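User: Before I run my own analysis I want an independent prediction to cross-check against. Here's the chain; please return only the C-alpha cells and, at the end, one sentence I can use as a sanity check.
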Amino acid sequence: MDRFALYYPHIHVRDDDWLKYAALYWPKMARIRPPGYPLKDSPVARELHAARWLLDLEPPASAAAEVTGPFLQLLHEHGPALRDRFGLDRIETWGLPLAEAGFGNAGGSSAGWGEQPAEDGPTWLNPRFGYVHTSRIGEHLLASAVDQGLALTGPGRGGMWVAMHPRLATVYMLALAEQIAAENHLHPVTDQMLPHAAQSGWTFERLASVLLDGLAPADSVARPGPEEAFALLAFATVVPADLRNVPIEKILEVRAEFGPELDAFRQFTADQVQRLGAIEDVRDAGLYQEYLRTEVDREVRARLGELDDRMRGAGLETARALANVKSVALPPLAAVAADAVGIDPTLTVPAVIAGCVVGAPLQWRRRRREIAQESPVGYLFQLQRALGPDTLIDRLRRAWPR
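Assistant: C-alpha cells:
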C-alpha cells in the first residue's frame, strides 16, 4: 500500500505550486491540525481539502509522549546550557532576526512556525518567538520547559500556545513530525527550507548535538528524500515549471483520469529509490542532486523517448503532421492519415482530413492510453499532454482552415 504524505512544519501549506506538484504524486497528504484551529487555507488548499486529498490529523498524544522522553533528558542533563543559549530572559541576545537566521515564514513575519497564534496580537506575543500549539506538547515537558525559563504559554486562535526560542520550536516539531509519520505510516514532506529534516532520528544524543554542539553545515542541510526528489525531477521533464496558471481542478481531473498510470509511476519511483540508497549518504547537496539528475536522465528520459517512438509507430506522428496541414491538396498525407485511423480511402481528400479531425481523436486516445499503461513512465507522458500549453486536438482544430 502506498504511504500518504505528512506535511510539516506548518498547518497551512505556504507554496501553492509545491502543493500542486504534491497532489500530482502523493495518494493523499495529511497535516497536523490542532483541534478547533480555524483554517485560512489558500483557494488551492481549500479545493484539495474539499476533495479529501488534504487531510487534517489531530496531534496524537502518543507521539507527544514518545518525543517527551529525549527532551526531558536533555532539560535534566543540560538545563543550564540550554538556558544560557535559549532562555527567555536572554531574548535580546538571541542574535539575528529570525528571517535572516533561516526561521522566518512566508510573508515576512518571523513568528516561529508561521501560524499566527492570535488575531489580535496580545501583549505576550513577540516576533522573535517560535510558537507551538499546546496540543502538540506533553504536559510534563511543557511544565519543565516553563519552570526552566525556556517557554511561556498564552491564549491564541484555536487554544493555548507555547512561545520559545524558534530553534527549540523547530527541533521539537521536526521530532514530533517524524514520530507521527512513523506511527501512521506517513512520509514527511515539506515546502520549506529548514535547518534539519524530519527523518533524522531524534535521539537524546542528536538533540544535544543539534541544540548545543552545532553540526557541520553539510550535516545540517535539509533536502528532499530520494523518493520526492526523484519524482520532482521526473516531473520537471514534462510538466511546466510554473504551475501557477494550471487550475487545481485540472490537477484533480488528471489524478482521476490517470490513476492506473500514477500507481505504475509510483511503483517505478519506489524501485528507483531502492537503487538510489547508495547515494543517500552523499554529503554535498549539489553532488547529490547531480546523481539524481543523472538517474532521471537515464531512467526517465530514455523511457519517455521509447514511449514516444511507440506512439509515433501507432500513428501519432501522422496526427502531428496533419496538424500542420494548411491546404487540402496533399493526397498522400491524407491517404496515410485515412489508413491510420481506418477511414475509407475512397473518400475525397477534404472529407478524409475532416474525418481525421473529427473522428481520429477517439481511436488515437484509446491506443495511446493502452501504450501509456504499458510503460512505467506513462503517467509522465499523460501529464505532458494534459498540462502542456496545447493538446493535440487543439492543434488539429487550429490547423484546419475554417
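Sanity check: The chain has a mean pLDDT of 77.
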